[in-house]
Amino acid sequence: MKKVFKIILSLIIIFFGAIYILVNTVLKENYNISDIKNNLTKETINKKSQELLLVNDQNGLGKDYIPEGLTIPNIKFSSNSANEEKHVAGIMAKPLEKLVKAAKDEGVTLLGNSAYRSYKSQEKVYNNRVKSQGRKLADSYVAKPGFSEHQTGLCIDITNKDKYFVEGTKEADWLAKNCYKFGFIIRYPKGKKTSTGIDYEPWHIRYVGKEAAKYIYDNKITLEDYLNK
Ligand SMILES: [Zn+2]
């Protein structure tokens, strides 16, 4: 009888021990999961604020602003692209590669022309224009340093083999119709100068993430409209 009692007691101890270990493990896992979730949320917020960064003639960037994770995407560039302007912000590299590949799969060849431009480069371009054409004309054609969206590394001017990227060409029409699927918008659409401050540019696409891009495309609005500024 004593032996049976001992066995039962041992079994009870083992049973509760097992439950104790199990509960502890589950609690620990839950704790880790909620920790991971918190981190993801922070990352998502950081990504969103990058994706929706607004630069226009009212909103500029500092001299020292350099996009995160600048990298050269794996796409073909036009022969006259300088090394600096082949770079894009890290978050935009993969979506851009996917966009260019999807176009190629449909028989449309898109070439990168000009993406990132540093504050210094923009300053050079701007000052040269001022020298050659005067400040007034320069201001109407070239963004002042800090006020070009190209400093964000989130946009790129696309071209084609003929370096003639205008509305009605196969390439420009494909881009206008499909870029939102990859998180891009035509940043300066036709007839929206009052909103963007810039004339129609079919070649200039801006990465804003898929959600914003689809909304902007579906509602035929601009990034300024979207951000309500
Ligand atoms: Zn551009």
UniProtKB/TrEMBL annotation:
Q: What would be one Pfam family of this protein? A: VanY
Transmembrane feature ranges: 7-27
Annotated GO molecular function terms are: carboxypeptidase activity
- The protein depicted here goes by the name D-alanyl-D-alanine carboxypeptidase
**CDD domains (alphabetical):** LD-carboxypeptidase
Answer whether the UniProt record assigns the keyword Protease to this protein: yes
Which part of the chain is the D-alanyl-D-alanine carboxypeptidase-like core domain? 90-210
- UniProt cross-references to PANTHER family, sorted A to Z: D-ALANYL-D-ALANINE CARBOXYPEPTIDASE, PEPTIDOGLYCAN L-ALANYL-D-GLUTAMATE ENDOPEPTIDASE CWLK
Natural source organism: Clostridium cavendishii DSM 21758
For this UniProt record, the keywords arranged alphabetically read as follows:
Carboxypeptidase, Hydrolase, Membrane, Protease, Transmembrane, Transmembrane helix
Gene Ontology biological process terms in this record: proteolysis
